[in-house]
Amino acid sequence: VVAGRRALFLLRRNRTAILEAREDPNDRRRGAPTRIAPGEYDASVHSVLQALGQAHQSRSEDRPAALATGESLRLAWVMALSNDGGPGGEAESDSVLRVCRALKRLGKGHLLANRHAAAQSCLVPALELLRSGAETSRTVDCASVLGSLGFLHLRLRRYAESAGFLRECLRLYGECGVAEGDRETEKVRSWLETATSREGAAGPAGGGGATPPALLEIPTIVFGEEG
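The structure corresponding to this sequence follows.
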């Protein structure tokens, strides 16, 4: 956390210097300038914010985690909306994935803090964005969001909905090459067993039935940049 805050401070403090022309040590021509693009700078800040959010969540520090993940989401949207897809720009799918990963991280924080409505308001748009493209709809990212929604509905005792999301999560993990015996798939499979075993016990509104497990770990495979 301390290292992340220091990195963020230095990035922001030296923003002008970072974006200005500087000498490229790999260029044999003396004084040959190179430039760090604003998009590259923003991507660095976004990565640090995401890492900070993850670190604070792992320490159960809800408020600083929410601040870091919320700011990373804002920056992800700014980068996505400013991307015109022209020469030197990133692919649209990369912009979508960055936004979805930020939504997923923020939703996970809300879920850990039992803010279920807020978690759903992050996870549902993330799933809709991922499913809006043929490429992003078949990714581990999409499977992870499905798993988180399944976990959310399990916590809310909506067992039928939970089972649906979790089955789709496992199917997509399989398509993406995640092994059946992988720790992540085993974890999701255990949630699915819980949901299906309690599906008949829930009332029409999702209430009643046995209390779900007090602590279930949220998907950790998630995205490559989250570690």
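The chain has nine helices and two strands.
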